[in-house]
Design a protein that fits this description.
Blueprint: E1 2-9, E2 12-18, H1 30-48, E3 58-60, E4 67-72, E5 79-85, H2 93-108, H3 110-114, H4 126-143, E6 172-174, H5 189-197, H6 204-211, H7 215-228, E7 231-233
Antiparallel strand pairs: 1-2, 1-5, 3-4, 4-5, 6-7
């Protein structure tokens, strides 16, 4: 699993979040966070000076099972995204970092990030979005391993089940403008498809049927959209 996420600008941490509910991460102490952020930023910048070598994308620590993955932002110079993860990780770390970088720049803007004056509190609201990235990536990974049964492939006209959960009939409705681009906030392809199907009329069951998705999957995506403040269910 991914243990930590750190976003570093010019060797200084903009945001540091422990994702494993553990106080024993390598960035748990503030002094260690600042020192290690400077070190990893310098190491990453050093490798960029040698075009033949390329940039550092991943490191492994020798005394434990942790690995570190790096991603340089294309739009903001010296902005680095760093994730620590262990060998049992079920999430695509590179994809996770790319999703984080895209959403981070879209949310705060290139100019604001470049002019950052050292106050990390301004980026704290991004932590909830990071949690949703992890949930969606895990769901997407699990979805590829699930085989649809013959019953799930039946059309809504032929599907009869007296014991279906109540939430099948919930109708998602937008609380915000529908003009936003869901790809700026959502990482999974299924999540974006569900977002675009929401019209305030179709129920979870109808959306799932239209997209050939499991109702439980659509419901989980809707719960994430509720966390973002995008929709409500009725």
């Amino acid at each position: 699993m991914i243990r930590d996420l750190v976003i570093i600008k010019d060797g200084v941490p903009l945001l540091a979040k422990n994702l494993s509910n553990s106080q024993k991460g390598i960035f748990a102490k503030e002094n260690d966070l600042i020192m290690l952020s400077g070190f990893f930023s310098a190491l990453n910048s050093f490798s960029d000076q040698f075009e033949d070598l390329g940039s550092i994308k991943e490191l492994k620590l020798s005394k434990n099972n942790l690995k570190l993955s790096f991603l340089n932002d294309r739009d903001v110079q010296n902005l680095v995204y760093l994730a620590t993860f262990d060998g049992n990780n079920s999430v695509d770390v590179r994809r996770f970092l790319k999703s984080v970088s895209k959403s981070f720049v879209n949310r705060f803007g290139i100019d604001q990030i470049k002019k950052w004056a050292g106050r990390r509190e301004m980026f704290e609201t991004f932590e909830d979005i990071v949690d949703n990235f992890l949930e969606e990536d895990v769901d997407e990974g699990n979805e590829t391993n699930v085989c649809n049964s013959a019953e799930q492939l039946l059309s809504s006209k032929n599907k009869i089940d007296e014991n279906i959960p109540d939430y099948y009939n919930y109708v998602p409705r937008f609380k915000i403008s529908t003009k936003i681009n869901p790809e700026h906030y959502l990482t999974g392809e299924s999540s974006c498809k569900v977002f675009k199907k929401i019209d305030g009329i179709k129920s979870i069951f109808q959306i799932a049927d239209a997209l050939n998705l499991q109702e439980e999957r659509v419901y989980a995506i809707c719960k994430n959209l509720i966390k973002f403040g995008f929709i409500s269910l009725s």
